[in-house]
Amino acid sequence: MLRKRLITVLTFNDGVLFRTKQFKPDYRYTLNFVDAWSVDEIVVLDVSRTDAHFKDRSAFLGVVERFARRCFVPMTVGGGLRSAGDVRYALDAGADKVSVNTGALRRPEVINEIAALYGSQCVVLSVDAQKEANGSYQAYCSFGACPSGWLVVDWAQEAVKRGAGEILVNSIERDGSLQGYDLGLCRQVSNAVDVPVLICGGAGNWAHFQSGFEEGGADAVCTSNIYHFTEKSIKSAKEYLSNAGIPVRI
How many CA atoms lie within 13 A of 176 on its CB side? Predict the structure, then answer.
């Protein structure tokens, strides 16, 4: 049986580590609270919004390089990746995988290009999902500000056809809420694709992780509430999940 994964998501705004709430930088953190060894994977995302920043990615790539030197688990890097050339910079800085979102919605062919060059295992499609009034979920782009016209399930299936090896589902509404994942959203996606599905947005306790696996059908659960995510708490989370019958790496 494949072990379930516990993933820490780190969001950087202009090179500074922040917690986000509904996709807006909300609270500044210090990297001293990041344990880069006990989790199963790390996702490092650039959420900077300034044009000047995206013309000069050196600050963020420097963050990636520093993590790569002290991180011994797989690391996914995303934010502002629009081309295979952008991906090359991220991989050269130390990324094991890359996450694409807005760039893929604007030009889906980039998924094919990355998969052809580096393999499907390198491509994580990040989907920022918003629940609409009719109950459907739509994929949003540009930091969750713009509807894309794609239903989340349809977009996930299209991305897998193009070569995406994993789907990271983010709930815009739940982000930073600590009220639990959107399990219905995750279950829809996990039932629709045959690649691993990662759920993000809303985890506030260990029971939420368990629900993400059991009710959401997730292969990995993500959290960005890193202030309390020290080595001790990660061990506690994994022990909780193991005792609940969830196969995890202790």
Answer: 13
